[in-house]
Amino acid sequence: MKLDPKKTAVLTLDIQEGIMNFAPGAAATAIPNAAKVADAARKGGFLLMHVGIGFEPGHPEISPDSLRFEMIKKLGGFTKGSDNAKTHRDVFRQGDIVLYKHRTSAFSGSPLETILRAQGIKTLVLMGIATSGIVLSTLRQASDMDFQCVVIKDACFDSDEEVHRVLMEKVFARQATVVTAQAFVSDFV
Q: Which residue range(s) make up the domain with 82?
């Protein structure tokens, strides 16, 4: 099944330099596959966007009631323009679109939906870190917004291998086409 590049966006999700500190295993497994998919997307003329966590200086987007994100604020992490907020060097190329979000889903606090709708996008190809975080949240929201989705299972990473497996085999398969990076490059581009 080939995807129409004019109606398909390829999204890297939280594949950022600073995320590697929390998911060191991703560098050996998911990152090379994500780079392969990103390169194929560029060559195929697909809209490629990198969506990652990013905050203004001082983190005004983070409420003290947000226990999960309050630690990021205390540590001063993921400030836009900082090294840890940058898209991972193996998937990013000059000229790529980078969007920042403020919570778990790629749609949360970002202009993602506006760009997708403005470009006539109907299908999303998702890959990222962590499978149980941004990939799950984004897939669920995208499906609720009537986007068709493809998930690149070996370009996603979760520190819990069993959670990754269950999500890919039992949960994601109900809302998306789940494929490998090689299958995407061979069959979809």
A: 8-188
